[in-house]
UniProtKB/TrEMBL annotation:
It comes from the Eukaryota. Its cofactor is heme. The keyword Iron applies. GO terms for molecular function: heme binding; iron ion binding; monooxygenase activity; oxidoreductase activity, acting on paired donors, with incorporation or reduction of molecular oxygen. Belongs to the cytochrome P450 family. Pfam families: p450. Keywords: Heme, Iron, Metal-binding, Oxidoreductase. This is Cytochrome P450. Heme binds at residue 279. InterPro entries: Cyt_P450 (IPR001128), Cyt_P450_E_grp-I (IPR002401), Cyt_P450_sf (IPR036396). The keyword Membrane does not apply.
């Protein structure tokens, strides 16, 4: 989660948050407040009294309000620093050699609204942190349950990155040799990550609000302000879509006869949504997950700390493991 957060902050804000090492107390507080806010937001769907609690500022809504203050203070501070940085660059006539996403937005007239920038930043954090971080957790969990698949992916990774060279494995060697060409060779890894997303989609429940009256493709009428929800979590387990082995973890279902990845219709595999609303960060997410997975699996073997310990969901907007995934990591020799 922290690695994904650091990555998206650097891409979106050009800021090295460095939350992975936990050296910043401010960053740690932000992460906790962000996750707790996400959980409290989802509970609103289940709590018919949440508006009343918000009105009186009590219990879960009072805590949510406090967490939002922490999140806003942290994000606004980063935005203000970015605005000053851009202004200083403009004053001294120097150009931004490497523009991040927020810097690009600052060139637009509507960027004068700090709240809009905050919403943009939070949108990128939600899209880039929870999704890839939670998927990687479930991915490692699945590979611990299927150790033969873990070894198969590890061998594919080593072959793609090291070109079958008989060299001593180390993190630096892997990092230096990760390239677009190497990532493209990792077809089974791509399939395994996709299979993880099928069974454990990062966003398990998706809701859309209708802006106008419309008719769905099956003839069902919807009215303005109606809310339509669909459940990628349930769809990923439907036998009518994925056959009788729908609940089995089988990366091979995503490979053709030559072992190359073949995509399913996004209207069946809805983890990234579909049509005009398909996830803009889909390719970025895959690249990020493949890089992290390649380094970890190429250099370490993973086993669950306790095979009998139940792995439960945390009730949040994203599908996270409650309490984290506890594993042992053993260096590969």
């Amino acid at each position: 989660m922290n690695a994904a957060l650091d990555s998206i902050f650097e891409v979106a804000l050009g800021v090295e948050l460095d939350s992975l090492c936990g050296s910043s107390e401010e960053g740690v507080n932000f992460c906790k407040a962000f996750d707790d806010s996400s959980a409290a937001t989802l509970w609103r769907f289940l709590d018919p009294l949440w508006k009343l609690k918000k009105y009186f500022n009590i219990r879960s809504e009072a805590k949510l309000k406090e967490n939002i203050k922490v999140v806003d203070a942290f994000v606004y501070k980063l935005i203000n620093n970015k605005v000053k940085e851009v202004q200083n660059k403009q004053l001294d006539g120097s150009s931004m050699s490497k523009e991040d996403i927020v810097t690009r937005f600052l060139h637009l007239p509507e960027a004068a609204d700090p709240k809009l920038l905050r919403d943009i930043v939070l949108s990128f954090i939600i899209a880039g942190k929870d999704t890839t971080g939670s998927t990687l957790s479930w991915f490692i969990y699945k590979l611990c349950k299927y150790p033969h698949l873990q070894e198969k992916i590890a061998q594919e990774v080593k072959s793609a990155i090291l070109n079958d060279e008989k060299v001593k494995i180390n993190l630096s060697k892997f990092e230096d040799n990760i390239s677009e060409e190497a990532l493209e060779k990792m077809q089974y890894l791509h399939a395994a990550l996709t299979e993880t997303l099928r069974l454990h989609p990062a966003i398990p429940l998706v809701s859309k609000n209708c802006f106008s009256d419309d008719i769905l493709p099956d003839g069902f009428s919807v009215n303005r302000r109606d809310t339509i929800s669909y459940t990628p979590y349930a769809m990923g387990r439907m036998k009518s879509i994925w056959n009788e082995n729908a609940e089995d973890f089988e990366p091979e279902r995503w490979l053709d006869e030559n072992g190359n990845f073949q995509a399913e219709s996004p209207f069946n595999f809805t983890a990234f949504q579909a049509g005009p609303r398909i996830c803009l960060g889909k390719e970025f997410a895959y690249r990020q997950m493949k890089i992290i997975s390649a380094v970890l699996l190429g250099c370490f073997m993973f086993k669950l700390k306790d095979e009998k310990e139940a792995v439960n969901y945390r009730t949040m907007i994203s599908l996270q493991i409650d309490g984290g995934l506890h594993v042992h990591a053993f260096p590969r020799v």
